[in-house]
Amino acid sequence: YTEAWDADKKSIHVMPDTPDILLAKANAANVSHKHYQKAWDEAKAKSYDLRADAIPIKQAKASRDIASEYKYKETHEKQKGHYIGCPSAKEDPKLVQAARAMALQNDRLYKKAYNDSKTQIHIPVDALSVQAAKECQTLVSDVDYRQYLHQWTCLPDQNDVIHARQAYDLQSDAVYKSDLEWLRGIGWLPNDSPEIKRVKNAQDLLSDNVYRTPIDSVKYTSVVDSPDVV
Fold first, then answer.
1. The organism sits in which domain of life (predicted)?
2. Are the C-beta atoms of 15 and 24 separated by less than 8 Å?
3. pLDDT at 202 exceeding the cut of 60
C-alpha cells in the first residue's frame, strides 16, 4: 500500500530556476570567503615592483629611526659624561651631599645602632620591674583566673534540690509545650457541620439498638378474654 508513496518520496525534483534556489545561490555567493578574497588572491598572483628608493619606503625608514629608542637616546648617551664636570660621581660635591642626605633618611641605617644595642641589654632576674611584670602576668593569666570548684554532690531528697527541680520543670520548654504536643494532630469540627451530621446519621443506621428494639421497651397489655384467662 505504501510502496508507491515510499518510492515517490525518494525521487524529489526541484527546478533550478525557482526563486528560493536563486536566492540561496545569491546568499552563498555573498557569504563565501573565497569570493570575498578573490580579487586579493588575483592581485597577489601578479608580480609587483617595489624599489628601495621609493618615497613610502624612505618615509617608513625615517619614521622607524625617529621612533627607535636607540636613536632617540643616542645623543643623550654620548653627552652623559659631559654633564657632571668631575672625573667621577664621588668627587662631585652635590652628588656627595645627596648621597649623604639619602643615607641619613634611610630607615635601616637610622635604626642600625638601636638594633645593635637591643641585643646587648642584660636585666637581672630579681629586678623590681621583672618581678612586677611576673606578678601582673600571673594576675591576668587565664589559667590561674579560672579555678574550677569542687564537684559537689547533693542528695535527691533535699528541699533545695526538690525546689530546683520544680523550678526547672516550670521553666522547661518540654513541659511547657507538653499539652501542645498532646493536642497536635487532633482536629476539631463544629457540631452542626455536614461532616458531623453525616457521621451521626451513619451511626444511627448502623446502630444495633435502633435496628433491634428490645422487647421489654415495648408497652403491651394482655387480652382479657383469652382461653387461658377464661
1. Eukaryota
2. no
3. yes
